[in-house]
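Go through this:
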Amino acid sequence: MRHAACLFLVVFCFASLAEDTYEYGTPAELNGLTTYFLDTGTDVEMRNRIAAEVARETTALTIADSSDHARMQVRVMGNDTSEQGASFLLYVTGQEGHARLIHRFEYTHSKLPRLRPSARFARDFTKLWREAQSE
């Protein structure tokens, strides 16, 4: 029984590592995409705050309720109140469903609303997206 449990654990670990395999892309791959998905885990407040900030920056981008409905994906690690700040991985779903990493945004913690990671990400994300639309 112990061997079966260990084998299951090893297989599970390798399977979860395989899911986080990234290919690498360029910001030009954002051209023509208008729907994005925010993965903040269970932090719905953070998701709503980022979506509101992005909407303030541009009305051309819309947020999806499911990752299946958007090729642009943003994985959020951390939050506005964390002393470590927050990181945002922007990737595009490529061929065969592989994630193509476009950009990693990292921000430190700030108590000023305009400098919080969510607000800074919204500005930088929409700027990168706008630049890709002009290419």
Notes: The two ends are 58 Å apart (CA to CA). Residues 2-19 form the longest helix (18 residues).
